[in-house]
Amino acid sequence: MFIEKAEVLISSPGRNFVTLRITTDDGVTGLGDATLNGRELAVAAYLREHVVPLLIGRDAHRIEDTWQYLYKGAYWRRGPVTMASIAAVDTALWDIKAKAAGLPLYQLLGGRSRDGLLVYGHASGAELPELFDSINEHLEEGYRAIRVQTGIPGLPSVYGVASSANARTGSDAGTDARYDYEPARRNAVPVEESWDTRAYLRHIPGVFEAVRNEFGPELPLLHDGHHRMTPMQAAKLGKSLEPYDLFWLEDVTPAENQEALRLVRQHTTTPLAIGEVFNTIWDYKTLIEEQLIDYVRSPVTHAGGITGLRRIFDYASIYQIKSGAHGPTDVSPVGLSAAIHLGLAIPNFGIQEYMRHAPATHEVFRTTFTFANGMLDAADAPGLGVEYDDEAAAAHPYEAAYLPVNRLLDGSMHDW
Ligand SMILES: [Mg+2]
């Protein structure tokens, strides 16, 4: 079975997506997600100019060899653009192999290890009443684990909070969606936000105290620090949140400096999740070997596909570290489906992030996965169980959109 065609498909049904579709000489097609939020066209060009020409004529069954060929063969290793491109090829080839076998992909990865994937949703509110409404809304929709983000007094717009009109200029603008936070805004340049870490550290423990008092001790609660703290600030936050028994505290520091997590770890028993901006197993080496985190955050889409991410999860499993894959709406339904199949199969699944895609997205990406009782599950359709509708996609051309940038109150650039 040889690769006859590989197409880079760019569409924007609610938000921008880059998709790779590979077709074999006997007409089997496979899809891979190559979406890199705010840098979409760089991955599209990498694929079109430097990867697609190398794929034509290759044996579609040789997934591992193709992965190594694109990783080692480029000489220039790692990085989000390269690894999203490799991920798209890898995922599309797994989709093809599973379709050729007539099996849902998870069967080729070892079969089911569980009934479904526990997911968490994003609740947010500028103030507590809105936050409580948002949590209740998620519980009514079946969510059994909730990420909590709130506004910070004195800051006009804060990461993860959707309830201000300011934050709702993305895919849900003009709709009645109240709380679906969409950080990427359609604009020629990124929106600028401002940040004050001390104000944040003062405010957040009281928010979690109020949420626990309102919703009780059982509901798993998560929180994302979005890379904004120093190691000492992160240690302080982790410690101050211990009474509220978080499921995890995410991205407390910019974790390129993996050794910094030693200090955080020494000071708090709050579980830590890191890695949504990481791309390879090398980015986790110290974090995993020294057991400095509890959950690995990389998604299939940005970490070299099923092949790359499975290797990271297996490595993590020997240290009792679990999966907690990134799953915002900029991971396309193709990337999400890949996450579901991989999550069903691995022994060390933890939780899956799940923000539901907009209806327009589902008109382009025809999915078969299900969400019920707070769990995602794959259907029995062969492959990934997603088809791409070219006609529907044609109505949604690419439009520049960027994640915001972040400045401290004195104007200095800070981590967003
Ligand atoms: Mg995050």
Q: Can you offer a commentary on this structure?
A:
- With 416 residues, the protein is α/β, with parallel strands linked by helices.
- It folds into 2 domains: 3-104, Enolase-like, domain 1 (2-Layer Sandwich), CATH 3.30.390.10; 117-381, Enolase-like C-terminal domain (TIM Barrel).
- 35% of the residues lie in helices and 19% in strands.
- The protein contains 13 helices and 20 strands.
- It has helices spanning 40-55, 63-72, 80-101, 105-108, 128-140, 197-215, 231-241, 260-267, 285-289, 305-317, 333-345, 359-364, 390-394; strands at residues 3-11, 17-24, 29-33, 117-125, 146-150, 185-186, 192-195, 221-224, 248-250, 272-274, 295-296, 322-325, 351-353, 365-367, 370-372, 375-377, 386-388, 401-402, 405-408, 413-414.
- Helix 7 (231-241) runs parallel beside helix 8.
- 52% of the residues are buried.
- The model is unreliable at 163-179 (pLDDT under 50).
- Bound molecules: magnesium ion (MG).
- It is an enzyme of class 4 (lyase).
- It comes from Gryllotalpicola reticulitermitis.
- One of its GO terms (molecular function) is mannonate dehydratase activity.
